[in-house]
Structures are given as C-alpha cells and as structure tokens.
Amino acid sequence: MAYKITLIPGDGSGPDIMVEAKRCIEATGIQIDWEVVEAGLGALEKKGTPLPREVLDSIEGNHIALKGPITTPSGSGYRSVNVQLRQHFDLFACVRPCKTMKGIKSNFHNIDLVVIRENTEDLYAGIEFKEGEESSLGLIEMVRGNLSKEIPADSGISLKPISRTASKRIAHFAFQYAVDNQRGKITVVTKANIMKFTDGLFYEEVEKVARDFPHIEFEHLLIDNACLHLVSSPQNFDLLLAPNLYGDIISDLCASLVGGLGVVPGANLGNGYAIFEAVHGSAPKYKGKNVMNPCALILSGAMMLDYLGEAGAAHRLRDAVESVISEGRNVTKDLNPQSPVGTKEMADRIIHYLELGERDG
Ligand code: NAD
Fold first, then answer.
1. Is 180 a catalytic residue?
2. Separation of alpha carbons 293 and 19, rounded Å
3. Residues 22, 124, 246, 333: which is the catalytic one?
4. pLDDT tens digits, residue range 249-273?
5. Which of 14, 209, 220, 305 could form an SS bridge with 171, CB 3.0 to 4.6 Å?
C-alpha cells in the first residue's frame, strides 16, 4: 500500500528542488501517494493567504509532510508560514544532523553532530508589539510600573516565552534521541547567565532530565562560547540542544562546517505529526535557474523514510547522495564552482546510483 504524504513545493527555488527530491525518493521504490498543496507566495497570489486551510487539512489527514522552503518577508508582511506550521501541529522538536561527507571541501573532517532545537517558543513565538501601538505603550507602562525599568516609547518589543513544560519536553526528546541514536554527549546551549528567567529556566529543566541519563555526558555552554568552539573544534560536539533562536542560528553555522546549506536536512517532529524540510530557505535569486543543490531536501526525504520505518530505502537514498558527492563530478555549483552540473543533472546521477544499487541487489 502506498503511503499518503502531503507535499508542499514551497516558493522561490523550493519547487525546483522539490521536483528532484520527489524523483529521487520515488526511485527508492517506496510507493507514495503525494497530496500536493500550495503554501507561500504562490498561495498568497492565488488564494489571498500564504497558508490556505487545505494545507492544514491535508497535514491533519496525512500526519506527515515533505515541505520545500517558504519565503518570509523581512520587516513587515505576513507571519512565517514555517513557524505557523510548526506551532499549529506542535512540532516541538527540530532535528538537524550535520555530518561531513567524503568529497566535501571543508576545513574540517569527521564532524558528525546533530542540532536539536526547541521549535515552538522563545523569541520565535511571534509575540510582538509594534512600535507606537496602544498595546506596546501599555506594555512599556507596565514594565515601568512593575519593574521600574525604562523602555524608550518608540520601541518595538518581541517577547521571549520559555516554559518549564516545553523545556522539559525537548530535554526528554533530546536525551531519548541520544540513547536511540548512539550519541554519547549532549551540549546544551543558552545565555543563562544573562537571561536567567528564560534561558536559565531552560537550562534548569535540561539539567534535571540529564540526571535520569547518567551514562550520557552532559555539558552546558553559553551561546557565544559555543560558537567559538564550533568554529574551532566542531569534532568535539555530538548533540547540541538549544532553545529556538540559538538552534536556528547554530544550525546554519554547523551547516557551513559540513559543506553548506545545500547538504543539511531537517525534521520537525511532534506527537503524531512530522514535517520534513531542508535547513535552508527559499533562495529566491536561484529560482528557475537549475543551480540549487537538491541534496538537503533529498536527505530530508531520507529522514522521512526512516520515520516511516523504511530504513532500507532511507539508507540507499543516503548512500546514493554520498556516492555522487564523493565522486564530485556531477554536483552543483556550491560543491564544485569550477565545473558544476545543474540541480536536475545531480538528481539524475543520484537516481543512477539508486538504480545501480538495485541491480547489484
Ligand atoms: P537561504 O537559505 O534561502 O539562502 C542563503 C544562501 O545560501 C543562498 O543565497 C544561496 O547562496 C545558499 N543556498 C541555500 N540553499 C542552497 C542550496 N540548496 N544550494 C545551493 N546554495 C544554497 O537564506 P535567506 O536568503 O536568508 O532566506 C531566503 C528566504 O527563505 C527568506 O524569506 C527566509 O525567511 C526564508 N527561509 C525559509 C526557511 C524555511 O522554509 N524553512 C528557512 C530559512 C529561511
């Protein structure tokens, strides 16, 4: 029986890589009945909203989606569709494995770490007060009255909620993930010395959970120190656990250590729902140019196959991607600026390896 999966092509260069990721996933032989729904700029133009109801209905029905990147306008405009989806389906755990592959030109070798990011709270919660509005002025007044602290009247304000419940939940997820995936060390990353009531609380909850897993090494680094160590000795990290915003930033940093955004996949997981997507965004300047590296989305597809219990297909798909990257001749410009091939041609080569593997049995 075919798996029914929601497919959101995304916008910008999203649809370009989604076409290729879909072909590669299908070439594993796993039967999938894709339900294609549109979110992002295309949906906004056609339906007046970047997140039409049918997208939510489709994921509610199928419980699983593969998603291309979606543009979020900076400064003004609609709220992030990506964040809305994570919040709507309570996809509280974002998992982003970063591993060096043979053939990738990098200053570092032997990196094999995973970033686990709390996905629903923090400054990313989208609770904002616009400069000059009554609610903002009221909040400024409240802060003055309750805390005797002054906020300039022409300020915009973003709230940073971090709850014990969500912190404990992501900590449990991370430690269990470490057990299930043979990871021996967890580094929790915060700024708990400065933001005591939010990052401090996050750290406290993680530390409590760590006591239940004494065989897993546990350390705490402040985010600035963590960045220093990540760019000097990334091999020393195994699993990084962070609140939402730091998790977002260190994911891109870690991606750059292992070959760039073109090769790092991601999964957003909750209770009974999952959305798989690359770490990178919609890179609009590459839209329709056949230059995007499709591997990050293809590898997100491999994570999806694992989630479905199709470990064999996931393994073959990863192997095919790694073979093409290590061969180095049929890869996109980000991996080989001198003589690159296009997005489609790289996917063709991945499919070639998948077919070769099938013939070899
Ligand atoms: P981006 O990740 O889209 O791109 C940054 C740069 O990285 C690109 O210009 C390109 O040079 C390179 N790059 C990224 N992916 C690549 C790939 N697969 N192959 C080759 N090169 C690649 O980041 P941005 O420019 O900051 O964001 C663009 C838009 O995407 C924004 O609107 C942002 O909000 C959105 N975004 C969406 C998601 C998501 O859908 N989950 C994630 C991040 C950013």
1. no
2. 12
3. 124
4. 999 999 999 999 999 999 999 999 9
5. 209
Q: Exposed, middle or buried, 216 (CB in 10 Å: 0-12/13-18/19+)? A: middle
User: How many other CB atoms are there within 10 angstroms of residue 151's CB atom?
Assistant: 16
- Quick: pLDDT tens for 194-235: 999 999 999 999 999 999 999 999 999 999 999 999 999 999
Burial environment of residue 27 by CB neighbours within 10 A (0 to 12, 13 to 18, 19 or more): buried
Give ligand 1 pocket residues (Cβ under 6 A): 69-72, 82, 261-262, 277, 280-283, 285, 292-293, 296, 334
Q: If we measure between CA atoms, which residue out of 39, 72, 36, 35 comes closest to residue 53?
A: 39
pTM of the model: 0.95
Residue 224 among the catalytic residues: yes
User: 259 with 331: CB under 8 angstroms?
Assistant: no
Taking the CA of residue 266 as reference, the ligand 1 atom at the shortest distance is: 41
Report how far ligand 1's centroid is from the alpha carbon of 286 (Å): 10
Which helix H or strand E contains 305, and what residues bound it? helix 295-307
Which of 180, 224, 285, 360 is catalytic? The answer is: 224
- Residue 199 in tokens: 């990052």
Tell me whether residue 105 is one of the annotated catalytic residues. no
